[in-house]
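Researcher: Structure for this, please.
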Amino acid sequence: MERRTIGAGALTVGAVGLGCMPMSWAYSGSRQRGEESVRAVQRALDVGSTLLDTADMYGPFTNELLLGRVLKERRADAFVSTKVGLLVGEQHIVANGRPGYVKRACDASLRRLQTDVIDLYQLHRADPEVPVEETWGAMAELVQAGKVRALGLCAVGARGGRRSGGRLHDATLRQLQRVQQVFPVSAVQAELSVWSPEALDGLLPWCEARGVGFLAAMPLGNGFLTGTLTPGEGFEPDDVRARHPRFTAEMMAANQPIVAGLRRIARRHGEEVTPAQVALAWILAQGHHVVPVPGTKQERWVAENASSVALRLAPEDLTEVSRLPAARGSWD
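Model: Predicted structure, token format:
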């Protein structure tokens, strides 16, 4: 697989990564099967999707434990990305950016992942009670201690940005300017997809100008852009889409023209090409510093996502994507 660079430290990864969250968190709990997920991770490494993206809060903790089963045998094949800064309670999630906690959390992640170093350690969310420079400074000390190779920042939640009246990622850009003064940012992770392109305005150019890698989260629109979801079919109560305003039956039906457009482009490239591959190819075309990280827990989707690297969209394809209707049912 084509390789792409994460940050100025020249850390390289496969051009398409693997988001591991669905294996144990947030999506269809009844379909989460450990052995199937392990096979999916193995397949990702086999096809060159080396970036494995997880977080201590997924599960919580069980996602890192699952990856540890694979990394114990195949650490040299993987680029391990995990996150810190969020604690999961019974009915809530809170931020914790205290330096002492960050260091303890890193040690715990290393144990669960069965490795002695984390390739990319990301701040999941800044703690409003702790200056972000203090949290970032503690993370930088982990690099100096040899426990972490590079640092990344996840974008501030979308809903808060939209309510503020400013551009979606203004708050994230302010955080990046602050932490960059403490220790270099190697990667930024934020939502980017055909139906959520807001990162193209400000955030992606900021990364490109500074040699910072961009990890595109939810590149398939939580599964919608694959064209495999049926409006009105419903979701399990623990599935985040059950509470997402774009996934009501009405809004899923209203947004079908987006999938139809991706399917139309796919047909021009061959009968075997899928809307999901077009959606990922569009992200790959946004810059060589961009790495989509689609989440899945099935081998078949891992292989399909990885093969999108070979799909080269023509200028007219990219123009057609840009003219697709905007998604309806957003957080606005």
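Researcher: Any notable elements?
Model: The first helix runs from residue 34 to 47. The longest strand covers residues 148-154.
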